[in-house]
Each structure stands twice: as C-alpha cells, then as structure tokens.
C-alpha cells in the first residue's frame, strides 16, 4: 500500500473526549471515527486490524469444529417473546417497528435466532453435536457507552452456539471452546486470564470469562497466587441504578465471602428489594494498616435512595431527597438531611461485607476512611478521608485472605472481558421446544452452550496492553501492516525511489503487507506516523546507506536499529 493511495488520517493532538489510551490512540492513528454515541466508522487502518482479529478467531473456531453461519442483525419480536426475553430485557434491547407495525429488535445476541434455526434444520441425534458460529455486528443500547470501541453500542462479536443431547457432550465442546479461546488470545499476543464467571443473569451451570489484564479494565478479577483459582467480581451491573440485576452466582458468593458482598447482601440486611438500592457509599479503613486490623469486618454505609419504605428512623421522603452523596458539601449537610444528630448515625450505619463495585460509573463514589467500630460519619473528616474509589483499596481489604479454594492469597486485578463461554443447558431449547429424535426414537430437548468473543473490543484491549508514548505497538499477528518503508527525500532522488519500489515489490511478493510512505513529507512526520500506527518493522531508505547497499531497520517494540544489506531483508524478516 502506498500512502498516497491510502487514507491515513492520523492526528497529532490527543482528542479531549477520549479517556483511555486505546480510545485516544485509535482516534489519533486514524482507525476509527465517532458517528454517534457508541457507534464508529472504521477507517482503512481500523478495518485491517479488525479483519486480522476476525480471521484468527475464525481459524481457531473452525479448527475446533465450529461451522460458520451468518444471521440477520434485525430480529423479529416473536422469537424473543417465545424465549420470554422480550419482556425481561431492559432498554439495552433496541426495539422498533417496521412499516407493517410489526415489532423488531436489533440483535444484542442470537440465542433465539439460532435455536429457531436448529429446531427447524436438525431433527435427528445423528446431526449432533453441532456448533455454529458467526462473526457479526451486534447492537446493545448500553447505558453508558464509553472508551471508544471498548464499550460501544454497535460492535463486532463472534458468537457461537452448540447443541447436544447430553451434558458430557456439551462439556466436551465447552472444553474445546475453552482451548480455542486460549489459542485465540495466545495468537493475538495478549496477556489474558480465563476466570470463573457469574452465571446468574442467563441461568446455566458453568461459565468462564476471558480477561485481558489492563489497569483500565472495567471488571475486577480475583486471583489466587497459590492455585489456578480465578473469578470475576462483576458488580457493575448489579449496582447500577436502573435495569435488570443479575443474581449473584455460586462462584460469586464464594469469592464474595466473607469480605466481598453483593448488592443482594445489602438488600437482605436492609430488608428491601434489590432494585431499591440505587447508590452505595463505601466505607472502609483508610490505610493498608487499618485495613489489616479490620479486615474481617469492613464497614459499609448503604444509602437507599429509592423506594417508599422506612429504614429505621430515616423517613422515606428524606431518603428521596438524597440524590447522590456527591451533592453534599459537608458531612453536616448529609447528617441534617437524614435527621441524624451527632452520635446517632445508627440507622445508616450497617455492618455488612463490603460491596466491591469496580464499575467506572462508581469511580466517583466516596471511600470513607474510619478505623473504629461505630466511628463512621461521626469521625470522618470530609476532605481528609474521602478519596476516590480505587482498586488498591479493595486489594487492601482482601489482602491476607485465603482464596476460596483454600490455596494461596487472593489478589485483585483489573480485566477487560474479551470472551465469555457459557453452558446454557436447556434454557432456550426448552422455551423454543428445540428437540430431536434421540437414539431410542424419542423426542428429546437439546442442551446448549454459547461462546462469545468481543472482536472489536479486542482491538482496544490489545492497545491497552501494547503502546508507548509514541503510539501503538501492534503484536505482529494483528498489525495493519507488518513493514513500513520510509524513503528519505524520495521526491528528489530517482535512486531512492527505485530502491524503495524494488524493495516494496520484493517484500509484497514475499507475502508481507507493506506500507510504502511515498508522501512528500519531512522524515520526522513520516517517522511519527509510522510509530503512531504501530507498524512492527520499519525500513529507512537513505542515500548514504544505499552507497553500501544497506538500509536502516528499526523494530517498533524494542526500538533497536540496525543496518541491513538490502539483499538480506526478505530472508531476515521472514
Ligand atoms: P460486559 O460485561 O463488558 O458488558 P457482557 O458480559 O455483557 O460484556 P457478553 O454478552 O458476554 O458481554 O458478550 C460476549 C462478548 O462481547 C464480551 O465478552 C465482550 O468481549 C463483547 N462485548 C459485550 N458488550 C460489548 C460492547 N458494548 N462493546 C464491545 N464489545 C462488547
Ligand atoms: Mg454487557
Ligand atoms: Mg460481562
Ligand atoms: Mg459476558
């Protein structure tokens, strides 16, 4: 590719509205442009990377025995009514009507459509097991689209669905998918961890998520340093102010206790419905030492912000006025509103396991320091003790605690969920009556698994893990181009042009994707762009080196430069 025939669209300045590095770099490197909230156009460089990720996913899925299909993005309401999810889904499911006034939705996932297909096409046990996948655009009207393609509304997903007649058979495919996912993320060159995941929301028995480790990750994942134990503490949705809340799962509860509780724990303690808990305020020891001293009984203040119930002496109408703790200028103001005089903060001072809410939506929540029982709020110095919620705080809380499997210590890291595998069981096949004739000639409902990969999210996750001050550092497998050719003052030198063109033809013929920067730009501009878009290998063609039949090679990741003989280039890079 010659840059003169390409749409490079690089930007020097860091876009003001992009919070995390991957979003900034994807904009600056000319990979994406925002069309509307959570919706992006992929520019040529973005598409090249997207297709690479897609292809690796496709290859590994195919290798693991899955077969590719392609379903429509628009789905009829009837199927969702049949599964019962038409009423259960909140506004994340974008619904609309066609010209005949029929209801439709933009597909956020495809369990219904695939189960409908399979119940029609598959009639005998002889056709099972079957694992069908697609790589397709999804739409979820996310409450808070953010971080570019990381949490978009329209995004690319690989979703697979498997059909079986026995749990053993499902387990086999599940294991194959687990392995395929490991292969995918290894090939992508990502530092990732599979973790046990919450099965609450969809139902089902077994689930793993695959997380790319990165400080900007929205999920907190708990590891044991002494065993393979790893689990996701996904509380973002559970504590979010509106919408459906997934029930905490068995695995969650295991990780959760004794120091990590769920919104359900709080609800139970307050004797209110989950949905009435709209906002929580974290209270725990201010320092690592304090945390250790009080590690088993971390204090939490939960403010119930909605609902018309009475919470001890606190009047409902007072609670209704509490919009957000952030709105209070001082402790006194909050106290006044709650009618809680000095020393009488009892009604809102409830001892429960701490809620770990790692969602970005709650980053602004307060963590209040206090190191004596019953000393919360009364002893708080608003300016000194109220800090932003940080993962480090949670780490302090759990520090010293054994992992649920009893081996090693529990450690919390941040992760980006890039894949999710799930044993669905008969949830959808029952609802849609998807069965086949089994070996005994009897009609039997199939059991299902589903397997998702966030193809577009992977790009952002890869950048979070691979960048420096100058830009992106692509893992070779997903780089938009492998090699950049940067000729010095080509427009003044026929010799440079000829040498670069010859090299370009050679490398292209050898199967490399080569970016030939033939712009009339200063060398500095070219270097900066090539580093920004993260091409792994670059070759500078200059007059002086050409005298010795040499060019300068630079490795983007190591930064190392060396002079190479032109005749050796192809074989060295191969
Ligand atoms: P999250 O917890 O981040 O909201 P999810 O659990 O809702 O994700 P799944 O239903 O498991 O997502 O979908 C499979 C995969 O699709 C996820 O593992 C993730 O990589 C990707 N994905 C989900 N939502 C989005 C989104 N809004 N933007 C980009 N990728 C997404
Ligand atoms: Mg989600
Ligand atoms: Mg999730
Ligand atoms: Mg998931």
From TrEMBL:
<keyword id="KW-0547">Nucleotide-binding</keyword>
<dbReference type="GO" id="GO:0004827">
    <property type="term" value="F:proline-tRNA ligase activity"/>
</dbReference>
<dbReference type="InterPro" id="IPR045864">
    <property type="entry name" value="aa-tRNA-synth_II/BPL/LPL"/>
</dbReference>
<keyword id="KW-0067">ATP-binding</keyword>
<dbReference type="InterPro" id="IPR004154">
    <property type="entry name" value="Anticodon-bd"/>
</dbReference>
<dbReference type="Pfam" id="PF03129">
    <property type="entry name" value="HGTP_anticodon"/>
</dbReference>
<dbReference type="InterPro" id="IPR036621">
    <property type="entry name" value="Anticodon-bd_dom_sf"/>
</dbReference>
<keyword id="KW-0648">Protein biosynthesis</keyword>
<dbReference type="InterPro" id="IPR044140">
    <property type="entry name" value="ProRS_anticodon_short"/>
</dbReference>
<keyword id="KW-0963">Cytoplasm</keyword>
<keyword id="KW-0436">Ligase</keyword>
<feature type="domain" description="Aminoacyl-transfer RNA synthetases class-II family profile">
    <location>
        <begin position="33"/>
        <end position="475"/>
    </location>
</feature>
<dbReference type="InterPro" id="IPR004500">
    <property type="entry name" value="Pro-tRNA-synth_IIa_bac-type"/>
</dbReference>
<dbReference type="InterPro" id="IPR023717">
    <property type="entry name" value="Pro-tRNA-Synthase_IIa_type1"/>
</dbReference>
<dbReference type="InterPro" id="IPR050062">
    <property type="entry name" value="Pro-tRNA_synthetase"/>
</dbReference>
<protein>
    <recommendedName>
        <fullName>Proline--tRNA ligase</fullName>
        <ecNumber>6.1.1.15</ecNumber>
    </recommendedName>
</protein>
<keyword id="KW-0030">Aminoacyl-tRNA synthetase</keyword>
<dbReference type="InterPro" id="IPR033730">
    <property type="entry name" value="ProRS_core_prok"/>
</dbReference>
<dbReference type="InterPro" id="IPR007214">
    <property type="entry name" value="YbaK/aa-tRNA-synth-assoc-dom"/>
</dbReference>
<dbReference type="GO" id="GO:0006433">
    <property type="term" value="P:prolyl-tRNA aminoacylation"/>
</dbReference>
<comment type="similarity">
    <text>Belongs to the class-II aminoacyl-tRNA synthetase family. ProS type 1 subfamily.</text>
</comment>
<dbReference type="Pfam" id="PF00587">
    <property type="entry name" value="tRNA-synt_2b"/>
</dbReference>
<comment type="function">
    <text>Catalyzes the attachment of proline to tRNA(Pro) in a two-step reaction: proline is first activated by ATP to form Pro-AMP and then transferred to the acceptor end of tRNA(Pro). As ProRS can inadvertently accommodate and process non-cognate amino acids such as alanine and cysteine, to avoid such errors it has two additional distinct editing activities against alanine. One activity is designated as 'pretransfer' editing and involves the tRNA(Pro)-independent hydrolysis of activated Ala-AMP.</text>
</comment>
<dbReference type="InterPro" id="IPR036754">
    <property type="entry name" value="YbaK/aa-tRNA-synt-asso_dom_sf"/>
</dbReference>
<dbReference type="InterPro" id="IPR002314">
    <property type="entry name" value="aa-tRNA-synt_IIb"/>
</dbReference>
<dbReference type="GO" id="GO:0005829">
    <property type="term" value="C:cytosol"/>
</dbReference>
<comment type="subunit">
    <text>Homodimer.</text>
</comment>
<dbReference type="Pfam" id="PF04073">
    <property type="entry name" value="tRNA_edit"/>
</dbReference>
<dbReference type="InterPro" id="IPR002316">
    <property type="entry name" value="Pro-tRNA-ligase_IIa"/>
</dbReference>
<dbReference type="GO" id="GO:0002161">
    <property type="term" value="F:aminoacyl-tRNA deacylase activity"/>
</dbReference>
<dbReference type="GO" id="GO:0005524">
    <property type="term" value="F:ATP binding"/>
</dbReference>
<dbReference type="InterPro" id="IPR006195">
    <property type="entry name" value="aa-tRNA-synth_II"/>
</dbReference>
